[in-house]
User: Fold these one by one.
Assistant:
Number 1:
Amino acid sequence: MDKKLPIAIQLYSIRDEMEKDFKGTLKKVKEMGYDGVEFAGLFGNSPSDVKAMLDEIGIVAISAHVALNEILADIPKVISDYKAIGCRYIAIPWLAEERRPGRPLYSQTVEDFKAIGEEAKKQGMTLLYHNHDFEFEKVDGEYILDILYRDIPADLLQTQLDTCWVNVGGENPANYVRKYSGRAPVVHLKDFVMPGKKPARLYDLIGTDNEPQDESDTEKFELRPLGYGVQDVPAIVKAAVEAGTQWFVIEQDNPSMGKTPMECMKMGIDYLKSIL
């Protein structure tokens, strides 16, 4: 690989450890070899305290996942808080069903995304959208994800393609990263196995719902440490470099293979570094 991109960890992957020992876990992440972090909550720490921790440890804050409603509650403050930490990007990680293309609140979604994107731009940051696989449902013959990126200008919204969910959604991850060349600054690398058909209640398996899991489904779909599933990671990495990606983010929502979350994230970065 001619160009080695820096590697960050999505801290949601180790959320329990972050809650118990915020600074100590950041130190361990640095020791694992990660260059940067993507936040999923600050666990009660102030932006200035977080910035001081990062500077002391020597690790970069590249972005943060922040719920849409949380951003909308005070757009300038939320963006300025994450800017103060050092983040270059702020990512919306989920879109409620009623806000999606073809649904009643979609026009409001477009206006809200534009308002957030404008404020981010004003403050020198960039708004991203992080997909799951529901965005690969079609409305009038077009993927929800493509409609979203079509309706909101690239200068106000960039992609954060989660390559696991692209694959689960039925598309080739490397090809999809290339599709958004020049608009894919941060790419999520995530691995999985899915021996059977896609579970009907997939998100129960990753903790977005408190309902009991269907054991037959958990046998069909499992998130895995990067390099230990079905993803063609070298092809995705090559495509990302060609597409102008600036950062890779490794994520694993839940641990597997009998490993702890920290062990999974160490396996993932060790694998990625071995192929870069």
Number 2:
Amino acid sequence: MNQVNCPVCGRKCVKSGKTKAGSQRWLCKSCKTSLTHKIDKDSKELQLFLNWLFSKDSQSDMPGEGRTFRRKTARFWDIWPLPSKVEETKDVLFLDGIYLGRKVCILICCDDKHVLGWYLCRYEHAGAWIALMRRIAEPRMVVSDGGTGFAKALKKVWPNAKHQRCVFHAFCQIKRYTTSRPNTLAGVELYGLAKDLLKIKTKKDAEIWVQRFFDWIKKYQKFLEEMTVDERGNKRPTHERLLKAERSLLKLIRENTLFTYLEAELTVDFAAPSTNNRIEGGVNSRLREMLRNHRGLSIERRIKAVYWWCYMHSPEPLSLSEILKTMPTDKSIAAIYQRMNEKNRLEKSLSIWGDAIVWSDFHKYDKTFNNWD
């Protein structure tokens, strides 16, 4: 049985009879405070819900073959656990997006230990990245996989942060164009260069690799310029996939985001990472595993499951009782949207019946006469 402590002095309480309603009365011998202790069942049921959500158990394994569990925990699917602002400056932050459906993406930001922020959108774009990043203090270094619109958002929100493009994602992009078994000698050499990209440890190694890549471009320049005429008479590059791989690497070199982790000003203070493995392996993989264990959830519940996981792995989550009191629900959000819609309708009606009225529409006067009283 849980020990009951006095809310006034914090001392141990003892039983002191019962109330007329039959509830147990407790008495503090130190300050003579009398009280009744209520068990917070909502927090216990929320903990039961989270334990199930983060485990591999199915609902049929729960008490009552799932029926009792669903009845007690159904209301927790209405809650939206939202992130708080992060004002502490971090050395390195990792950002990535996870797709839960065709047009459902959740952008996630984390550091070495915790999830710092998340944002729901239809797809990765600059506006969504900006909304996520504005609630987090600017770090010294950012590691990402080059999502759409991220570079634009980075310049606007975190202009002083160094950007490191995930080296492994850069390698995978080259591999997608060349395949692991290229049919041409140029493809074989480019694929070898891409694999060597993962082995670079020093600034000198990076300079040597860049020079090798430029030598590859000069060596196969004429080969890459070859054109093919299709049945309609239109010309197109014969080795189009190799050209795309070449352009992707040239873009990273020109933007100076491929070897940011080797810069001296960063390596002096901390170990700068070259990949996005922290968020890919530590966050996204665990989220996919959770959704796989509970497959069959609707798209809305999949979103909320990700929200719950991210919030409970944030730096300082609230207690379960505080979560139930403060976090918005479907009902509260619907009320906000209803008030916004009513306000918009009111503003539109005012513009039609107020500001839109023109004096000349209701009064006629002679332009030559201007002798008003």
Number 3:
Amino acid sequence: MFPKVANEVKVGVLASIAIVLLVLGYNLMRGKNVFNRDKIYYSFYEQVDGLALASHVRYLGMNVGRVQEMVLLSDGSNRIRVSLHISPALQIPRGSVARIVPIDLFGTKAVQIELSEQGEILRSGDTLVAAYEGDVINEVKLRAASIFTSLDSLVFVMNTTFDNETRNQLKNSIASIEHSLSVLDKSLAGNSGRLDRIFANIESITGQINQHRDELERIMSNLEQVSDTLKQAQIAETMEQARQALEQTAAVMKKINEGSGSLGLLVNDQKLYNNLEASARALESLLKDLQQNPGRYVQVSVFGKKEKDKK
């Protein structure tokens, strides 16, 4: 038989157990586990919007700790000290960052650990570098609000600017555009076969170009060589020489026309031309007479001077 326990003892034991459970539950609700040996790190922020007690501390997407405490400093800096309880398995080097980041669309925040490349490992009670990532949702809301405001202004301007006649014209224009698109659709549907053949021909042409790419490259290379050869031929210098020769020829012709020099006198002096022509005619008559009467001009002596005298 067990000894009889007094009711007062039972009440005391139950009260003690209830108090212990209450303390443990309160600590667990605050994110504090009294049975673990997490390391405590601190970080100081200007603001902690969306961050709460027991918020997750993450590294590479995995939960490695919780936010244990948030205290507003009384030194006048208006900063907030956040206590982070992190698993001792995570070795955090000095210079690492504790960045407050959003984790869902409802504004819930968590602390993300970004390790540095320094070699010194922090100990429990050291401080992490604080950083804060902007709330994308709030930015989207602000931009959406500005867009809606602009749309409201646009609708107001349209309602005040466009009268009934303008609206009817817009409706008619839209109806005309729809009719044109319908006609275009019908035309495309009626000529689909022709379009297919055109696209097939284009594809064939591109295929031929791809097949003869090497030949085209050689042709382009030859053209480039020809252009380089022409460039090296000094065409400009040759043209300049030709221009100078033409200028000199023009100068000579000018002198001839002006009567300068023998050739100029011959061309322009009529008297000299007549004398030369008369001399040529006399010379021609002399040659004819020489052919017809050579004895007048040439005497042949067979027996010497005496025979010549007798003749």
